[in-house]
Amino acid sequence: MKPKEAIFEAFELKSAGRVPATVFGGGVWTIRHWQNQFGEMIADPRAYADMIIKTNEELRSPIVYVGSGYNNYLAAAVGGKIKERPLGAPDLEAALVKETADEIVGTDVTVIEKDPVIQNIREAARMVAKDIGDEVVVSVTTWGPFTLAGQMYGVEPFMKATLKKKDEVHKMLDFATRLVKQFYTPLVEEKVIPMLSIADPTGSGDLISDRVFRTFSLPYLKPLIGWAKEHGAYTWLHICGNTTDKLESIAETGASCFSLDYKVDMAVAKQRLGGKITLAGNIDPVSVLNQKSPDDVRLAGQACIDAASADGGFILTSGCDLPPTISMDNLKAMLSLAQI
Fold first, then answer.
1. Nearest to 25 by CA among 87, 55, 60, 68
2. Is residue 113 a contact partner of residue 183, using CB atoms and an 8 Å limit?
3. Which of 36, 117, 219, 278 is the most buried (most CB within 10 A)?
C-alpha cells in the first residue's frame, strides 16, 4: 500500500487495523531546518519544491503541505502588505479594512491571478505533485473563511462585529470564501492536489462559542468543503484551541478529517464523533514534541492511538502546526508509530 492510500482509507473510515502517522503543516519548521527565508524561497518555485521534496525524503511523511506558512499571502494578494519575521511565518502588516467591509468585498477575486506569490505557490505544488504525488498526498494550505475574513477585517474588530455588525461579518465571510475557492480552483480542476488543507484558528473554542460558530463559520465552511468534494478533493480541517463545545458542529462541515488541537481530549472526541468523521491528532507540539525525548513522543503518540484508533478513522499527528525547533528525531519518533 502506498502511503497516500493509507491516508485515503482513513478518510473513508475504512482503516480499521491501520493507523497512518503524518506531520501537520511544518512550513516554518522546514524553512528553519534548511536555514532559509520565506521570501527568498517562494521567489523560486523550483527551489521551494525541491526543499519540500528533500525534507520528505528524510521524514517520509504520507502528507506534504505546500504553502504552509504562506497563508497570509492570500490577503496580501488583494491589497495587504506582508511583514517578514526573523523566525516564524510572515504576517500581514495591518488589516485591509479601515472602516467597513464595503472597502474590500467588491474586489474581483480574480485579481489574485496577477499575484506572483500565489502563482509560485501553485507552481511549486505542481512540481511537488509531479515528482512525489504518486506516493504521498500533496496538499496546499490556506486559512479558512472565518480566519481569512478576520485577518482582512482585523481580528478584534471582527470579533466585536459578530455581536453588533452581523451584516459586516457575513459580507467578509462571503468574500473570503470566494477568495479561497479562487485560490484552489486551478489546483483542484487540474487534479494537482487530492486534498485541501484548511486551517481556521480564529474559529477556536478559545475565541468563539458553538453558537457563533454555527451562525458564522459553519455556513461558509460547509459549502466550501462541498465544493471541494464536487471536484473530487478531500479536505483536512484544523481548528486550534479547545473545540470540545463544537465537535458535532465541526462534523457537520463535511470535512474528510478534523485535526484536533492538543487541548481536546482525544477519547472524548472519538466517543462523540467516531464513525462520523476521521480524527487526526493530537500530540502536544510544544510540551511533548518540542521539549521531550523521542521516547516521550512515542508514549504520547501511543496514548492517542489507544484513545482513537478503534474502528478506524484516525491519523496520528501533532496537535497543531510544528514549532520550528522540534528535533528531527522527535518527528521521526512520531512517524514511526504508523501501523499500516
1. 68
2. no
3. 278
